[in-house]
Each structure stands twice: as C-alpha cells, then as structure tokens.
Amino acid sequence: MEKPEYPGWILWVLQRACPPQLLEEIEGDLLQRFKRDSNKFGVKKARWRFVVYGLSFLRPGILLRNKFSFQIISLSMIINYISIAFRNFNRQRVYTLLNIIGLALGMTASTLIFQYVKYESSFDKFHSRANDIYRIQYNGWQNGQLNFESAVAVPAAPAALKNNFPEVEAFTRFLPIGGVISYDAPGEDPIVFREDRMQFADTSLFEVFDFRLLKGNERTCLKGVNKIIISENVASKYFGTGDPIGKQLTLHRGDASVFEVTGVFANVPENSHIKFDFLVSYETINAWTENESETSWNWYDFYSFVLLKPGTDVNSLQAKWDAYLAKTRAEEWNKQNRRQEFILRPLTDIHLYSNLLYETSPQDLRDGDAVYAVSVIAVFILLIAWINYINLATARSFKRANEVGVRKVVGAAKGQLIGQFLTESLLLNISAAIVALLMVRLLWTPFCDLTGWQIPLDYMLAGEFWLMVSLLFVMGALLSGFYPAVVLSSFKPVVVLKGKLIKSSAGNYLRKSLVVFQFAASVFLISGSLIVYDQLEYMKNKDLGIDINEMIVIEGPSITDSLYASKYKSFKTEVLRIPGVKGITASTSIPGEENYWTTGLQRINGGPEGANVVTTMGMDYDYVPQFNIAIKAGRNFSESFNDEKSILINEALSKELEFANPEQAIGQMVRHGRDTVQVVGVLANYHQMSLRAKVIPHAYRLRTASSYFSVKIETNDYKGVIARLEVPWQSFFPGNPLDYFFLDQFFNKQYDRDNRFSQVFTIFTVLAIIIASMGLVGLASFMAIQRTREIGIRKVLGSSVSNVILLLSKGFMQPVAVAILLAMPLCWWLMSQWLHSFPYHTDVNPMVFLISGVLVTLIAFVSVTSQTLKAAFTKPAETLKYE
Amino acid sequence: MGKEFLGEFEELVLTMVAALQEDAYGAAITEEIESRLKRDVNLSAVHVTLYRLEDKGYVKSKLGGETKERGGRRKRIYTVTNSGMATLRAMKEARVDLWKLIPQLKFV
C-alpha cells in the first residue's frame, strides 16, 4: 500500500481527541482539503497546512462536545461503582477499618519521613548559585602520610585560586571567633551577652552567597576596620526597636574592641550549614594579625568558599590547581617534608556527606546514608500497608466470587469489574489519605520535638507536598488495587456459580510470600533498632579514660586585664572554700570540645623527619588528677618544678614520635611551635571527643589561667554551689556573665544525633510491626470464618480446642518462620557494615536475633490466636445448625 | 429582532448553507467562502460554527455520500431549517431597513 502523503499522526491525535460522532466528517474534510491544497500549492505546503488545520480542531468548541457525551455514559457507572463500594465497606466494617488504619499509618509515617528527607537534602540549596559554590577542604600530608582532612583551609589558598584561574568568579572566607559582646547605651545599663555565632567575613560574601542584607550596603558594609553587621535577632536583642546602624558594639576577648554596626542581615536560614549572628569586617582581622590572615599558608582556621563560573569542569580545574600548587609551593613543602592539598568540595554536599576536622557546627551535620536509610524504612512501611490491602482483598475474594459470577452472567465486562474493584481501592485510599493528612498535621510538631527533626511546617503548604501526598495515594490505589482487581475479575462464572471452592494455590503462595516480606521487614527493623541501641549504650558506657562526672564547667571570663592569672589564683582559693567543691582546674579546652590549638611538633634527636601538626591543650596543675587521667610514664605538671618549658604528651603521640615505649620519651627534648621543651610525662590515651572519633595524638602545655574552669563537686546541691560561686566570680571578674554547664551532659550531647536516630528507628519499627500484625489479624479472622464449618465438624469428631488452634495457626506461623530465617543473615550483614563505620564498636550480638525472632513470633501468634480462639471455642451446634 | 442574535461569521456560514443546498458540508463551505470572498478561513472554525448553528436549531444535518478524495469518509450535509431561514431573512430585512436610512447619493 502506498504511504499516505499527508501526516498520519494528525489523524491519530484527532481520533483520540474528537468526539466519535464528529470524527468521520472532520477527517474527510481535512483529507479533501489536503487534496485541493496539494494541487494548488504543492505537496509540501499542503502537508504543512494539513498539520495546522488538523491541530486547530483541538479547540474547546470541538473538545467540549466530546466530554459532555463521555460523562453521560460513564457517570452513572461511576456512581454505581461508588454505591456498590460503600455497600461492601458497610458489610465488612472490620476489614475496611483495618485497611484504612493500616494505609493511613503507612501514609502518615512515610509522609513525615519524606518531608524530613526533603528538609535534610535542602541544605544550602537556597543560594541561587549553590551548584557553583565549592568549599576548600584542606588535606595535610606529613612524611607521605595523610595527617588530617580539615574543613578549614589557609587564607592564602582561595586568594591564589582566584588570582590564577579565570574560572573562579569570587571567593570568600569566614574565620570564627567568639567572646562577650556588650552594648553600652548612654545612660542605661550595658547589655551583655556571650556570643559564639560570630565570624570574620570577606566583603565578597554577598557576591558568593544569597544571604540577605536588610539594612546597609552590600558592597561597603564590610569594608574598613572594625565594622560589624548583625542579624535581625541580634539587632532586636541589643537595640530593641531602635535603628542599629551606626551604633557601637564592644567585643571583649582579653582586650576590648569597638565595632561600628554597618548593616543588618536577615537571620541565616535554618538550612544553612554555616550559621552566624555577627559578621566582622575581614580588614579587622588583617589589622590584628599584620595581614597574616591574608597571606598565611600555614594558619588553617578559615572556611573558604569559591564561586565558579557556570559550567566549569571542577575536575579539570582541580587538576590545574594541584599542578599550580605543586609548582609554586614545592620548595616550602620540602623544607618540612610535608604536602598540602586544597580540594574543591561542593557546597551542597557538606550537610549530608562531609565529616571533616573542624566542621563549623558538627552537631548539625547529618550522615547522608542514615538519612536515606530512614527513607528506606518509610518505603518498607508503605509496602507493608499496601500488602495488607492486597492480602485482605484477595483473601476476601472467595466471598465475592459469587458476586463476580453473577455480574459476569448478567453481562459485566472484565473491564467494568476491574473498574469496580479499583474504585473500591481508590475510595479506601482516599479515606486513608484524608486520615493521614489529619494525622500528619496533628503529629507534625510532637514528632519534630521527639525526633529533633526541624521540618518547617510551611512545607505542608508547598505544592510539592500535595503532589507527594497525591502521588502516594494514586500509587497506593493502583499498586494495591490492581492485583486484587485482576484476580477477582478473572473468575470464571461457570466455575464459581457451581459453588466450587476456588483453590488458587498461586494466590495462596503469593499471599504467603507477601506475609513473608512483611515479617522479614519487621524482623529486620527490630533487630536493626536493637543493634543501634546496643552500639549507643556501648559508646556511652565505655570507659573514656577520663572522669567527666560531677563536673560543672564555667566559661572563663572574656573581660579581663593583665592581672588575670593572679586573679584566677585568688578565685580558685575562694572556690575551694565552698563546701561541696572538691577541686577546680583551668584548661583551654574540655572533653567534648574539639581542640582548635594545633602546633608543629618535632623531636630534637631522632624521630620522624619534619614536624607533626599536633593538637595541643593548655591546662593547670590540677587537670590530670581532677579528671583522673592515668599517667603512663613520668609525672604531671608540678608546682615544685619550673614547668614553663615542659610538655606532656599522650601515648598516641609518643608512638607517632617513634618512641619505643612511654618511658623512653621522658626527658627528651622536642620543638613545640617556637619553644624547645622537655617531655616530662606521658598520659594514657583518653577520649577527648565521642567514641565516633579516634584518639588523636595530643600534647599538653602548662597554662595556669585559661578559658574553662572545671569545678568538681561532691554534693547534690549544685544550685547552692553555683549560688556561692557568684560571689567570688563577681568580685574577681566583674562584668562577665557566669555561664556554666554540666560536663557529662555537654559531652553526651555529641550522641544526640545517634540517640535521635535510634529513637526514630524504634518508632518506625513499632509502626511497621503494628501494621504488619493488623494485616495478620485480618487474614486470620477471615480464615477462621471461612473454616467455621470445618472446625465444627472437626470438633464434633473429637478435636480439642488446642488442636483446632494449632491447625489454624500453622498456616500463618510458617511464613513468619521463613521471614525470620530470611531477615537474620541480611540484617547481620548490613548492620555489621554500619557498626564498622564506628572506630569503636560492639559486634552484632546473636541475642538480638533471638529476641527479635521470639518477639515477632509472639506478636504473630497473639494476632493469629486472638482470631482463631473465637472460632475454636464456638460450639459446633451453632455453626452446623444451618446445614 | 428580539430573537437569537447571529454573529457575522455565523450569518456568513448560514447563508452559505442555504446557497449550497445539497452540497453544503464543511470543506465545500470553506472553499466557497475562500473563493468568493477572497478571505482565508480556517476549516475548524467553519465546523465549530456549523455545530453551533445546529445547536441553535438553524440547520440540521445528515450523513451523505463518501468520495475517494475524502479517503472513504462520509460528508455531513447541512440544510437550513425553517427557523434558520426565517432568521436569515429577518436579518436581511433589518439590514435593508438600515440601508434605507442612509441618504441617497445624488449625482449632481
């Protein structure tokens, strides 16, 4: 056959769009016109006109005629579907309720989880050019070994990158500081707070990021020395409703610096990985450090961001940059036998995938894998709920077999029956979705409180949210509705109307394997949450090598003078007089706080080549005994020696310095920064940070007055102690707020995120098992009713109640047993992987599987027997009297 | 003219239906308008207008013969109903009345 000259697809479109009664003449007219056009204008132009004419039929005047007639035909059918569906729901209220509750729980849980996942993956994406922004990660190599991977880089690196590579549009740096800020309003009491969300920042900040400046000029507000811009919150905290611009804030850190407020910015969004309330002009730090904060290649405290031109290939830029560094920095590196790497990391990956040294707020970072693991749980729960529907619907199918048969005999087409059953699943899912929406709204806040997830409530208003809910609903309705609909509608009327029992072994197998899946998921979740809990307990209870209990930590004064050291001494004497106080010690850092003081350290004689960059802490004489740290060799700092030029190291450092054993290190001389000092003692390794981190090489120097005072107390009346602390505090360090906290609480805050993860895991595990057992209850009760007569006859013939229960439960317990056997190895393997991501971890305890296996069996058994018992106790006379 | 009001294009199409008699169907009407009035007409516009006229009861239709050039598809032949004819006539008379209001051109 000759291929038609006209574009056939137009006719295809029209056939689908146009009302059938009009189609023929429209097509005919179009074709006739095409003939005429091709004679008149030639085929090419005629084809073009054919398309234009054809498509212009897709106008309301034509299409609406379509819809009108379509509605007349199927509306009555749909109404019929709905009324039949309601009759069915009404007849089987328990199943309907079980289904709706199960589906609603599943939808609620998954909606909440998906919102959470959405929130966690939204971090830093509010910047309009988020995908072009990269943070510079600093890797330090020492003697050919990777020494550290840090989130902070040296200030010269981003500048060099910008100046030598045209791909870089702009760079900006943040340098964190903290201290006490005061506003001395004329004629009023000064307003004083300790502030830690404070950074020095480059002027280019607003070029790179989308942080919004509400007052002031983006280009000039951070220009010049001693300028500061503040957040809205801070503005109202210090200045109330007054205009902050031009006012002066004083920062107290050792000495006082006065800053002029030149701008107010909108509060940093919650989903920014870097958060700040104050930004001080970068020129200020340049002035303080004689420009070292511009030129240094060694001082790494700077969060550095670069903005690349759109479409830049990062890998090739990285390669060029590496080559550039190797060329220009080689001489410097070789002197110290080290190497520096500055790696461009996408801004948007920081929140979920970065876990470097000195992250800006490590407690807010998330483990991307854990976040997505939670969404897997959500999918599990949804699947379990949908499976419930499928199982209950197909199990009930026997009951409806007659209905299907009669319908078919009367002339129902298969498609219509499918329509009927899909309508039922649609209605169930709609009711479930409505219940779920209500629950989501009600549970939103308590749920966020419980899990520590901060999901903004206005997510519920976003179109995306509604899209997701409707997607869940449509998917649920189709996925769970389709299979039962096909099964039910395929019954052969001749067979079912004869009253033959339909024994579809395929359906039976399917139902059983779905139950296996449900319970495997439950076993998996139970064992998983037990293992997570186990690991947490292990971390919390493992000996840290340091005693952090009964310790109150006071943040040292920021407003001080030259007499600080001697004042601290007098303060200490006063504090020791307070009853209940056992000791007080000063240090530059405390357990649970990342130590920022790093210095090069090298042995004078022997040891590894080049200097190691070593974390250092300053402490006074009492730190080691008060924290109960074991001394492996040598001695603690002591007032009977002059320990200004002494150093303590930990075992890890002793090993890294290649001492054969701790004793050997004693008396050795090392260079520590600019000082040459003698090792006088080696401390046992203890955990400065949580057990998520390895013990790192550490050095300790004597500092008699520093930023934290740890007070050991021996009384339950800590309030009394604190009240008594106020008096000497105010007399020795006037103007400083007395800020204190409990060390063990502070330390365990590091586990907040893990605790929350464990809680979430547990909550959803419980949910999953509730939904799964609801399904089982439904199935069992249905089976029990199905077999009422059989049970009656068995009892008449002498079966005991326990026999009957056993008989009925067997069919359900088999899949549960299979599920347990399947889930265990999988869970073992996956959870071992997870455990191995911790440097200190427990092993998978086989007891976990025993517990979860027994628990699941028990739950399943209770659900099943709750239904079968009734059947087993029914008197045969009652069930058989109708026969 | 208190009755249904006809749009300009509707009136045109209705007139064509009346004029073409047994040959009044979509494509023919379109061609006729194009060739007589030298005005480009969209086929689908004619169709929509015909359906609308049918809804209003000015024309009625039946399916007619098929031809080869139509790919074997039948035509829908339209004929003017009495009420359609009456409306057409009323409109024409109204227009003539209006014409009479224009002062006669006089050649001097």
User: Strand portion of chain B, in percent?
Assistant: 5-15%
Rg of chain A is 37 Å
**What is the H/E order of chain B?**
HHHEEH
CATH topology of chain B: Arc Repressor Mutant, subunit A
User: Quick one: how many beta strands of chain B?
Assistant: 2
Counting H and I runs of at least 4 residues, what is the number of helices of chain B? 4
The portion of residues assigned to helices of chain B is 40-55%
Describe the overall structure.
Chain A is 54% helix and 17% strand. Chain A is an alpha+beta fold. In chain A, 40% of the residues are buried. By secondary structure, chain B is of the alpha+beta class. Chain B has a single domain, classed as Orthogonal Bundle (Arc Repressor Mutant, subunit A), CATH 1.10.10.10. Chain B contains four helices and two strands. A two-stranded antiparallel ribbon of chain B has the order 1-2. The longest helix of chain B has 20 residues. In chain B, 28% of the residues are buried. At the A-B interface, α2 and α4 of A face α2, α3 and β2 of B.
Give a short overview:
Helices cover 54% and strands 17% of the residues of chain A. Chain A is α+β, with helices and mostly antiparallel strands.
Question: What tags apply to this protein structure?
Answer:
heterodimer, A: 883 residues, alpha+beta, six-stranded mixed beta barrel, six-stranded mixed β-barrel, 28 helices, globular, B: 108 residues, Arc Repressor Mutant, subunit A, two-stranded antiparallel sheet, 4 helices, 2 strands, elongated
